[in-house]
Amino acid sequence: MPVIDFHLHPLRYETYQPGAKAYLESVIGEDMEGYIARMATPEAVVEMLEESGVDYAVVLAELSPITTGMMSNEGVAEFCRASERLIPFANINPHLVASPAEELERCVKGLGFRGLKLYPTYQHFYPNESAIYPLYAQAEELGIPVMIHTGSSVFRGSRLKYGDPLFIDDLAVDFPKLVLIQVHSGRGFWYDRAFLLARLHENVYMEIAGLPPQKLLTYFPDLERNSSKVLFGSDWPGVRSIKANIDALRALPISEEAKRKILGENAARILGLE
Ligand SMILES: [Zn+2]
Question: Which domain holds residue 106?
Fold first, then answer.
């Protein structure tokens, strides 16, 4: 079974907000410039994935000019062309395009994107707003999964009210065939909601990037029961070592089967990598 990291960002954005850069500095440490220089290319990222025992990684675009920064869809498409191990997910900021649904079609059919990520807390919209319903209809028709940031964010300008997983319940009801992924599993306030929604809805998943793996059973005491609905992600470069997170997950007192599912089997099914 492959190991799949469902949440990775390119290190070199086209622009960073100062807060995002300061956060990166705090993770990377003193050799920030050297690390960026070494890790900016897709080849370096693929080498790191190999050394970490990761077979595939979902690479995320992000158009969040107010809160974090800009990593364009074109930039991510180009980055992922270097290796079939890198799987591009587009971002559509509904405030920056006239027709989010048309933009998604362009990204998928024109640029080869395999999924969509939305950032409601960074881009200030409710996930269940009627104005972006055509975007979900388009994703469902294209047969691609949609990741939605839920829970807390440390970056200045984030608005946490948009991060409540409960909004995703509306989407699961209205788009039953659409795969919906709760990024960060409701981090902070809403672990119980994210967990329950993933149990309740056949196509709703929880992704655990940004959560310390050794704390997972504290946040989700019943993790094992939901292991078919949980996806491993690192949020690199927001963590220094992907391998350390994988090792911590492997050390949890849950079944080997559950670990296999979380580390790759569930993601392979969603991404059609079986
Ligand atoms: Zn992230």
Answer: 4-271
The domain tally of the chain equals 1
Cα of 7 vs centre of ligand 1, distance in Å, is 6
Using the mean position of ligand 1's atoms as its centre, give its distance from the Cα of residue 36 in Å.
17
Q: pLDDT tens digits, residue range 206-228?
A: 999 999 999 999 999 999 999 99
Q: What separation in Å is there between the alpha carbon of 8 and the centre of ligand 1?
A: 6
Q: Which residue has the tokens 């492959």?
A: 2
Q: Give pLDDT tens digits for 62-91.
A: 999 999 999 999 999 999 999 999 999 999
CA 116 to ligand 1 center in whole angstroms: 13
Separation of CA 209 and ligand 1 centre (Å): 7
* Cα 187 to averaged position of ligand 1 atoms, centre (Å): 12
Q: Residue 31 is part of a domain; what is its CATH number?
A: 3.20.20.140
